[in-house]
Amino acid sequence: MKRIGVLTSGGDAPGMNACVRAVVRTALYHGLEVYGIMRGYSGLIKGEIVRLDTTAVANVVQRGGTILKSARSQKFMTREGREEAYNQLVHHGIEGLVAIGGNGTFTGAELFEREFGIPTVGAPGTIDNDLFGTDYTIGYDTAVNTALEAIDKIRDTADSHDRAFFIEVMGRDSGYIAIPCAIGSGAEIALVPEQVQSIDSIIETLQRARGRQKSSLIVIVAEGEEEGNATHIATQVKDAIPELDARVTVIGHIQRGGAPSAADRLLASQIGIAAVEGLINGMRSVMAGIVDRKLVYTPFHDCITRKKPLNHSFVRMIDILST
Amino acid sequence: MKRIGVLTSGGDAPGMNACVRAVVRTALYHGLEVYGIMRGYSGLIKGEIVRLDTTAVANVVQRGGTILKSARSQKFMTREGREEAYNQLVHHGIEGLVAIGGNGTFTGAELFEREFGIPTVGAPGTIDNDLFGTDYTIGYDTAVNTALEAIDKIRDTADSHDRAFFIEVMGRDSGYIAIPCAIGSGAEIALVPEQVQSIDSIIETLQRARGRQKSSLIVIVAEGEEEGNATHIATQVKDAIPELDARVTVIGHIQRGGAPSAADRLLASQIGIAAVEGLINGMRSVMAGIVDRKLVYTPFHDCITRKKPLNHSFVRMIDILST
Amino acid sequence: MKRIGVLTSGGDAPGMNACVRAVVRTALYHGLEVYGIMRGYSGLIKGEIVRLDTTAVANVVQRGGTILKSARSQKFMTREGREEAYNQLVHHGIEGLVAIGGNGTFTGAELFEREFGIPTVGAPGTIDNDLFGTDYTIGYDTAVNTALEAIDKIRDTADSHDRAFFIEVMGRDSGYIAIPCAIGSGAEIALVPEQVQSIDSIIETLQRARGRQKSSLIVIVAEGEEEGNATHIATQVKDAIPELDARVTVIGHIQRGGAPSAADRLLASQIGIAAVEGLINGMRSVMAGIVDRKLVYTPFHDCITRKKPLNHSFVRMIDILST
Amino acid sequence: MKRIGVLTSGGDAPGMNACVRAVVRTALYHGLEVYGIMRGYSGLIKGEIVRLDTTAVANVVQRGGTILKSARSQKFMTREGREEAYNQLVHHGIEGLVAIGGNGTFTGAELFEREFGIPTVGAPGTIDNDLFGTDYTIGYDTAVNTALEAIDKIRDTADSHDRAFFIEVMGRDSGYIAIPCAIGSGAEIALVPEQVQSIDSIIETLQRARGRQKSSLIVIVAEGEEEGNATHIATQVKDAIPELDARVTVIGHIQRGGAPSAADRLLASQIGIAAVEGLINGMRSVMAGIVDRKLVYTPFHDCITRKKPLNHSFVRMIDILST
Lengths: 323, 323, 323, 323
Hints:
The structure is a homotetramer of 323-residue chains.
Chain A: E1 3-8, H1 16-29, E2 33-37, H2 40-46, E3 49-51, H3 79-92, E4 96-101, H4 103-116, E5 120-124, H5 140-161, E6 164-169, H6 178-185, E7 189-191, H7 199-211, E8 217-222, H8 230-240, E9 246-250, H9 262-280, E10 286-291, E11 294-299, H10 300-305, H11 313-321
Parallel strand pairs in A: 1-2, 1-4, 4-5, 5-10, 6-8, 6-9, 7-8
Antiparallel strand pairs in A: 2-3, 10-11
């Protein structure tokens, strides 16, 4: 292998730039040429491909977003799209790819490899942390810290006014962000897709907390919570406890941005190095991840089809800590 | 005057604690006793009144929210409520008040003084900065910085995905928060109550920006904007420019919390000192403020009835800077 | 067991309060009474012991420092001191202890248990992360993030002026803080106690980086680095490369303070719960820790005498990433 | 005037990039061409001059440091150096300059204008805030906030251990940074060049504070303090009060970096616009500044020779607030 490409795809996540930097530097370290593919598979099809040298990734390790930009590509979902992508790679002499992204990214890469034989090693870049094959995804630690800092500020108001706040954090399919936010903010409840709580039990928990003279109450709601989003739940609770001064806030897009945390920079760097060295060693259609502090490569197929279970002991923790 | 009280009222604002601390320390410095009245006028009526010494305000200068808590009181709006409040003050031997809050707070205090003769000096504590009689209110600088830091994070995503973001910041009656956020974030447009822009002109400005190859667009919307809130405006813009990948985010309650900025701690301290020294010097029904770096006392009546105009040169700045 | 005590000892670390909160809430959850012992073993000897209820630990999860205060106690190193401590515990009816701290804390607790039979379960509270028996100590993640944010700021100046900065971070015996700071800041070199580099090799690495047109250079130095501290090393480098515009900065005490990160709040909560449940289950002279995401109890003796080795792959990473 | 240049000179300051952006965008808005001169006067002499368009300053408003880099130039202090600089400007067709920096920058610009007739308008870019002709300099507000956030962290440790901390902040000739840091952190004393306090009086103040049961003490020392730096003062205090557990920390270079605060971005933008519009209107050898919220142009001569006095009421405030 002489020349590889790197792209970011799907939603951006803090640490993607640290990962791109690691990919570039590792490729150069091992004597490879490296090209940046702009806007994910979309830019690959269009040939938005630029040579990257060491200074191209200087001073980006601390930046949020992705200097390679990201996009979702309908066309790459088609055989014709992938053929155009393949022709671009052949044209540029690129023999392998590092794809930084999530499930959708890896699904496309696996198909691409099967059809056209271009090997890809994946890097888990998503704030959601819902990928099998790695304890943590790149961007997750930063997103949790960003959400928690926001909740800390909201609690100032909750305490000052003896209010209840229903706070929605990201997490379409999992409570990975909601759970540490709830534990770290001293919330009374975390509502997560993995463990449905009825409205009645939510109301009961809040009534009990009020009985213990808690002046302010925090409920953390994952956006994918089955009982509905924060506004929906707050409305039902207010119906049941009319004297509750309840507010709703959605933390929203700030969770995707910002300078990556130390843990995310470290993880992104480890995985960027591992992805390139995996390619060099002949790997294909696997994702580099860290499990129990050890580097592991997991087939894309497993990453896509298997579910990483939420640690249920965390839910018990919230019960104890809100005593 | 031997004994004074201090209360916080209305929405909480970062720096209120720094102001309470300054009130307490200044009172003690001048040999007065000082009492904290919990939950604003509501706690005053109920007699939630506690003696404060120097250690009661140790280590609070950096804390958001208000250690005296805040509440809105319907009862203080009635003559009976104010009479109960007066009786509480007589009972505790409190001869003067420092009231930290906004327009509603000062309206109540002025009435109270007229009816019962208890002098109050006010401190402008609100993130909105819409009070006449001071260049800046306590909490405003922090709120702007909090909003701007959030917008910085959102721009990471906007840039990575070539998106437009419509971002709603606080400001029911004014663009004081929206304007510096727009200038400081490199936004294309700021929509503020003071200067209505038609949807057509908004669309035209965004079309022009797209013509200049701007890949990401930021529109800052004050919550009190006449054309409607961020969601409403974004919907109309998307109708006119369907190819725009537009998102909406509401910064929300985080703008009220957090550790106060250096400027807010300094301002809160200056005003806290001035409020107590104003009381000692026989002032009543005035608000302490800083105008052009000088301490001024403005009658409550003027604070309530006069409007502090937004500097219109700021709107021109956004035009120039988004060139 | 009916009544337990909790204390913090040694240098303070962010997350200690989150741990104290978890200890208190878990004790109450299981029907125990819980007492806070002020100023570590020093306060224990003097009987500075206060009952803690659930509100005593409300709103502290996000605070740096320790509400129980900390101190080093010479007297507890003596048999007489420990006897006084024992008498205090008997007097207060306290039957078990949770001690949050580091090696010195556990050494004292083990001796105390052997002599007087009072069981202690330890919680690893130190920013240094150099304790055997847990992957991470409480406070470590926050300290690294604080140092890294400071280094990010310094790099603004380094880049603007094409300067070299020698930056000293904490770590008397280990490079645990220095290594992620170096990887996360894009540093050219990390100098750590575990892997001595000669001045000649440092100079050679920097010369090579200059040859690659790197305009600014960052060297991270752990305070316990064998070749000497940052100032000493910078002086020698400047002698060898006189044209280098080199500066030294010591990050210093800020690394011990600040609101704990999400990871530290979570870890502190897990360990606080585990410590109390360990006591209830009859454990003594063990430290609760998390290894590979699983809760483990390690005998104090092992924590004190065994060394947790630095992951040497990290040093190789810096070589690659500074390509 | 058809074509102007912009440079940054002297120590970098947060907000310089926001100012460069405003200069570029304003020039383009008024139909001028604009060139960036790298590394201040040094790059001017060497002809390191690049055309800037609107995208060159996209996404820099929030970045610390200066994208134009900065340097100090001995050569520009000589007549020959300035002649080479002049030849470069003639060669590039540049007819006017915006120079962002401090006293040294303006001294050079004034001389250059007198000798070669190239008009310069200055922008006050320095964290020190010691320039006559503007209430605040670009970077000052950020530097104070950075220092104060660091001091907040240190106070966590001071409180936890009942310690005294002597903390040195920047300010070679003035207490502009030290004073708000002291007020905002609840310090007992601020030692500033403008108001010398004897060691005896420092010791007396600290003894009094200890008598009031203050457990932790903070002393803020400006680096230019006449009685010596923080270490020197701490040593003398420890000699006098041996039982004091005193530590020293120097905040250092972090005060120069980081994302600019909202106030600095606004100020930098206002001044950048004013500088270009001043040049267009025929101004020369003046600095654009904001005094009492109004734009003023002050002759370089006055900026250099006159002193902006520190508001002495601030020193009295510290006395009151540390009661």
